[in-house]
Each structure stands twice: as structure tokens, then as C-alpha cells.
């Protein structure tokens, strides 16, 4: 079975149909789709080939950290390589091509590398290609260079225009989920100049795909109400499609606004993108937390995705990846996916929970406590999973969640280090009370919606300002760390884009590259565009 | 980085051109016997990790010479005065 | 354990469980004949002390994890295209050591000599490049002067038409190129370690003990370590370490930013530097473009820079190669460089008995790693400058023999 569009629901506009092409084949989607969701809706799960082993790959995420579904977009001087299909807003006439495969995505000669995979382990190239001496530059290196990289960049001049702009504010809020919306609202109501930036096309963050209840209303309805109020205030600048990429001295931030990336060609006299320098008196990082995978055999087969991504495709884009799902989890949030899938008519074969017991709401699904998935069966799509004790469960899609990592990166740009928190098994951002830039909400490790709303208000409020925090329904969160299934027979991927496996990290440790900085550089884990 | 010029107010770092350490003292005499002092003045530097007094020319603004006191580890700007005031405060003299 | 295709294949059959650690992690001994502070050029120095001078009672003290300093944070370029006679023979010796690196160390550092091309944009600049090219050839270094057509046949995607500063030609060193920097640190560490050198990580020097004008050892975060000779090779922090011995240096610490792009299929074969702005670029074997520009300009130990220089570098890059417009920056970082008073490094003994100094590498230290280690080892072992690094003596400033390639005088941030 393959992915398909649900007949109801989602934030897509079913009245507007858009035509697009992928690898030369024509498809249809709707306004509100991303390229990834539209492809899934058309039953296309195979979207790329992995860097080293050329393994068939599909999406594992629904957002900016996508490692696999990288496509080449547009043509000529407008061509861009390595664009994540999960963030491309679908427009009529979009043309995209998969990368790193020949002659086609479906039949890729490069897959032969998989046969040599026992040799092509991490760091293998340091140990060979040295003889004869002349062969390195004439033979080996050209082959390596042609195999390296994923997409092809354009050599032509870019016909689009770009602008540079500056803005000052009392409060810059990065991320417009529940935390960011509360921070912006609180500061704006107190009369401060606020800039609210979000990398997505629409404000709301997790409220765009999680089923929440705030102030007695649907979570998204509440978010839209706040966004409308902010839009009406002259001291607020809403900046969707804007990624804040750096934090510099003087509380200066660099950002890129994608003014016209969601249309085929920018309208006359408009730039394609705008580069911003924000100078903020205070700033709040409300960028949320990133879900983590679990390392087990075949966790990269198309149809295996992060549990929250599966919810996102179902709730926001009305697309489900199959008819029968197995959930693999070490924390309570995996259960949300089971319940949401059942609500959409997808059969939940089992929730495989690595923890011995949990009090999360199962929604009636079968729970296998203290069990783990060792391997996924299937190559271009999921056919079944085998648990560590050998039991086989037939299914066509797998949702995995290994926990959540606060997106701390911006706060580490000035050299401070994150610190480990046992209670949520994740790194928390550095905290400096004297600092004019702080984290809030799940970016600060707050895992409950009520905590996020309150934290947003607290972080956003200038001293002494009133804070009005709405009530909400909370979903409990608990996690017991579990990272890797030792019993796996197949490759268990840790870094999907650079094709680094759990075995590669074990090898690095054996060779003395056990320090995280050495392991990273030796195996290239964490060095790809999804970092 | 933002640097508050005493004349122009807070301006971004690219408006300034930096000359280096403002603390070396130019020898009063050009007598060859003072060659060691000259060598010290022209070539040797403390290069501190921490508080540092640096000559800055506000090229993109009032074009005054200033002395920026800044922490070289955190880039925190501690004070900015005109070069003349810096020199006067050091010698304790007037004109 | 020897690295080769045979051993790689053999180990793949046993699941790679039999590889041994590349180097030991020994506890520091009470004393050594030689202690080197700094695990960058210091690693190379210790290797040559052991190999060329038979001195293996050596400890390299690295304050962080191996390669965490500038040796693992640079843009990987190797070249010997200087002008002044004090420079070229030294860097050319380094090139020769690079050319034999893989065989010497049995470690593939991906030495790739696909050419370093400096673009020029005016007749005057072209003449200056001809002069430098001739100086290189006089010192036995390969140099080729290209006109615009010559440059175009190498890199047609450069901007030859709409440019504010059109390309007039370029000076090419065909043997210049790049090396995988981490591999260099690991290869030297493995090589030195196999010859008995103790490579000690997470060991920061906090003081230098001198008695009766002679060095007797260093205070560190892992205790006192005695030595007969002490070599300082902690570029970026040279002034701080030298101050522990009461020395003031002709050096200012500055921040240099560098960048890597997302991985791309082959785009740029060799190294290209822009002549109308400070920008240089190459492509690593993993596909990312590696590029950078000038130092930020203000003294810094912060290991990060600011936006104006980022803007400047990207603007220069897109001006030189218009197709870069849609390429994305993946990583950026800043390092601390020793900017010296003439833009040239220092390798010398000091007036303190047993204390030796290797510093002042500005932004060009990585390519010099082999020759720097070679000459510093000689200086330490024989207590005299090597002929190749005689121009780098510390007292040159006092004596009036500054080696000033750029002709900017005693202003570190202009070199």
C-alpha cells in the first residue's frame, strides 16, 4: 500500500488545483500543499537516493530539518539544488527533479555502492586510495568528487533581484507557535515594537498540525485569532517565510525573508528574497523542539517517518502514508500519532513502546511494552517490521519517535554551550540572565502546552507588563531514553543525509575518535544540511 | 557589534576602522639612545584577552578618532571616548 | 596498524572490529626532554623531532581535543606563491612535504593539487602578478601568468562580462591546492605517537617555570610537567602563553571567519581568489564550497565574527561567480589568528634559555604545517634557526629586517 490523500480535512484549499512535475512526470496538488505533501498525496513515496549507498529514500519529516527529500527546483539561472521538498510551497507550474541518481530515481546504478557497504564504512577513504601515488589525483579523486555532493548548482547568473533591509524593535520573537504568539502578543499589547518571524508560510507553529484546545477553542482557531490581532496592531510586524539564521554581537540578527519563493517567478519590481538585519533590544527564541528518530535497522525505508511528521501530513495536509501503521516510541508523544491515525481511518497495528510501562492514552490501540523494532522489511516501501524478539508485524508505514530536542542553535552562536537535562533527555539552551536573548517554550525544554503559553507570556513581557495567559488542555509528556536497537541486522541510520550508521559511530570509538567532535568529523554524522 | 560614538550615537561596527592598541605611549625623544623605547612602541603589544583599549576611526560618521574599550573575549563594549579625552585622562594633564 | 586497501578489505570481513586506536591517550609523565605547547604545528614539530632528530622524549600539550585549534578550522589551502625570498623557499619546502605526505604517514589526507589561481583586474595588478610570478620562478616554484582568455578556459563560469572589475588575467600556481585538514592533524598525531611522542589532550598550560634564566617546566591543568626545552606553538593564543614567560610579542589576535556551503556536484576544480575584493573559494572532496575573505579588523579572542564581513564575503563571491547566487551557506565559524607586525611568521629561539617560539602565522598557517614543524624541530634540536626559516627570526623587527609582503608596515590588521 502507498500514501494517499484523505477525502476530508487538512488546511489545503481543495478548490484550487495546481499542476506540477517531478522528474518529468505531471501531477496535481492543492494550494496549501508542500511539494512533499503533494507527492505523497499522489502516492509518490520515493523522493531521493542517499548520498553514499544510494538507498531509496522518502520524507521522514514535514519541515525544515528534512534530510532525504532534496530536489532541484526550477531551471537556468534560477535553478537551486538541495531544496527540501518539505518546505517548498506548491505553485502552479512547479518543476522539480530528484538528485544524486542515474539514470533514474527508480533504477539508480549508484545503488551498487550498497554491495560494497561493508568496505565503505566511516573514514574508509583515509585508509586507502594511496597507491599508486599518481592514481589519487588522476583516478580516485575525480571519481570521489563526482560522487560527492547531492545537487548541481547553476552556473548562470541569477535573473531575480534581492533586497537588503534593516529593522529595529524592542522585541524580536523567533517562531510563532503557542510560545511565540504569546510572547509577541504580550509585548505588543504593552506597546512595544514587535517583530514576529516564522520560517513557515503561516503563523501557528505546532498548532497547525496538533489537535489542541486553547481558551475553549480549537488550537488553530485561537492561533488565527492572535495572528489577526497582531496584524491589526501598528507596532507589530508579522514576518512569515522568514528564517533568522544568525545571532551576532549587539543583539543583531541576520534573517532571510522568502518574499517570492512560493510563486513561479517574482512579480515585476519585487525581489525574490530580502536579507534583513534585525537590531533588537530583546529577543525570544520560540523555535520549538525537533523530534528525534531512533536508530534501528531499515529506519530509512520510504514509509518510515517521524511520528510528528505523520501527524502533520495527516492533520495539516490530509495525507496519510499508508493503511496500517506501527508506532515505535520511547515517550508519550508517539501515542498522539496512534490516536490521530485512528481518527483518520488508518489501522494502528501496534504501539511498540521501549519503556516497560506508560500511562499515555492509547486510544484503544494495542501496546507492546518493553519491546523494540529491530528491522524494517522492504526496500522502496515498508512491508513489515520485525521486533527484537523476532515477532513480525505486517504494516505499510512506521512512525518513530526517540524524543524531542529543543532547537537551541541560535543561542549557541556566541560560544555558550547547551547543557543536558535528564528529565526530558535533551540538551537545553544556555541561560544567561544578563542576556537580551532567551529561549521560551519547548525551545527551553517546556513540554506542556500550558507551560509554553505561560512561558511565552513571561519571556515576551517587558518588566511589569500585564500577562494574560489562556487556559488549555494539556497532553502529558514522559520519556525514558532509548537510542539504538542493538539487535538490528540491517543498517541503523543515525545521520540520514550523510549515510552514517550506528556501526560507524562504534567504529569511530574503537579507533580512538570517541570524543564527540572527533566522531562527528570522522563519520561526518551531523555535518549535512539537516545538521 | 554596536559602538556608541560620543558624537553620533550608537552605530554599527562597519562604520568604524580600527587601528589597534591605544595604550602604547609614543616616546617623547627621537634620540638614538631611546631606540628600545621606539621598538617597544612600534612593535610590541600586550594583546590582552579581556579588556582592551582600541583606536577606532569613525570613518562612516563624524570621522573622529575614538578609543573603544571592549572585552576581546565577549566583544562587550565597555566605553567609548574621543582619543583626545583618552589621552588627557591618562596624562592627567589639561591641554 | 597499517592502512591499505588490503587491510581495509580484510577488516571489512571481520566487521571492522579489529582496527586499533589511531593514537594512545597517555597520562603526562613527570618530565620530558621537550614539551611543545599546542596541538597544531606542535604535532608536526614533535613528529620531526622524533623522526629527523631522534628525540622522542616529547610531549605535545593540547588544551582541548585534538584538532580543535586552527589546524582543524581553516580553509585547507596549500600553496607556495609568495613574493619575498625569505618566504618562497620555506613554503615550497612545505609543498614538497605535502607531496609526499600520504606515503610518509600512510594516511590519506586527500592532498589535491588542482591549482591556485589569483585573479587580477587591472593592468597594474597584472604587472604586479607578473613580478610575483617571476619571483616564484626564481625560487624554483611553478608559476603561470594567464590573460583573460587563459582564465576563461579554466573557469568559464566567472564573471567576464557584467563585472564592475572585469577579469584581466590571473597568476596560477598549478601545484597549489587543498588538503583535508582534520586528516592532517590525525596523521601527524598517529605518526608522532607511533614514534613515542606523548600526545596529551585536554591539558592547558597555565604557567611557565623559569629558574636562573632557564626553562624548567610548565604548570598545566593536569599538573606540573618538567622539560629541558619548551616550544610554544599555540597560534591564536601566542601572546597569552608567551606572557607566562614574561615575553611581549609583535602580534595582535584577530578573528578570521570562514564558510562552507551545502554539498554540490563538482563546480570548482581548484582554488580561485578574487583580485577586486578579499574572497577565495575551493570545493572540498565532499562537495561543499569552502570560502572566506578578510579578517574582521578588530582584536578578538571570541572565535566568531560579525555580519558586515559575512555580507562582504558573500557579495564578493557572487560578484566573482554569479552562479553562486542560489547556493546556500551551511556552516560558518571564526578562528583566532596571530596577526604579526609584518604579516610574516616567527620561528626562533628566545632570549630565555630553552624557550622557543613558533607564532605569528596570520591567516596562512595551515599550508605551512609541515615546514613549520620541520624548521621548529630543527630550531629546538639544534638551538639555531634553520636556513629555510632564517627570515622568520623574532629579532628581525628590532634589526630592521621585517618581511613585509603587502608593504603595509607595522599595522597587524592590514596584512
Describe the overall structure.
The complex is a heterotrimer of chains A (531), B (95) and C (415). Chain A is of the alpha/beta class and 531 residues long. Helices cover 18% and strands 27% of the residues of chain A. Chain B is an alpha+beta fold and 95 residues long. Chain B has one domain (2-92): Folate-binding superfamily (Folate-binding fold, 2-Layer Sandwich), CATH 3.30.2270.10. In chain B, strands 3-4-5-6 form a four-stranded antiparallel sheet. Chain B has a two-stranded antiparallel sheet with strand order 1-2. In chain B, a hairpin with a 3-residue loop joins β1 and β2 (9-12). Chain B starts with a strand and ends with a helix. By secondary structure, chain C is of the alpha/beta class. Chain C has helices spanning 5-13, 41-53, 88-99, 101-105, 123-138, 148-154, 181-194, 238-243, 307-320, 369-382, 396-399; strands at residues 31-37, 58-61, 77-78, 116-120, 144-147, 169-173, 177-178, 198-200, 205-211, 214-220, 223-232, 251-263, 271-273, 280-283, 288-299, 329-340, 346-349, 355-359. In chain C, β17 (346-349) and β18 form a beta hairpin. In chain C, α2 (41-53) runs parallel beside α7, α2 (41-53) crosses α10 and α3 (88-99) packs across α10. The termini of chain C are far apart. Chains A and C meet through β7, α2, α8 and α9 of A and α1, α7, α9 and β16 of C.
Q: Quickly count the domains of chain A.
A: 3
**Content of β-strand of chain B:** 25-35%
Counting helices, strands and paired strands, the structural category of chain A is: alpha/beta
* Sequence of secondary-structure elements of chain B: EEEHEEEH
Strand percent estimate of chain A: 25-35%
Q: Architecture of chain B in CATH?
A: 2-Layer Sandwich
Spatial gap, N to C terminus of chain B: 33 Å
Helical proportion of chain B, percent range: 10-25%
Euclidean distance between termini CA atoms of chain A = 32 Å
What structural class do the secondary elements of chain B suggest? alpha+beta
CATH class of chain B: Alpha Beta
Largest beta-sheet details of chain A = 7 strands, mixed
The figure for the number of domains of chain B is 1
Largest sheet of chain B: 4 strands, antiparallel
Label the CATH architecture of the largest domain in chain A.
Answer: 3-Layer(bba) Sandwich
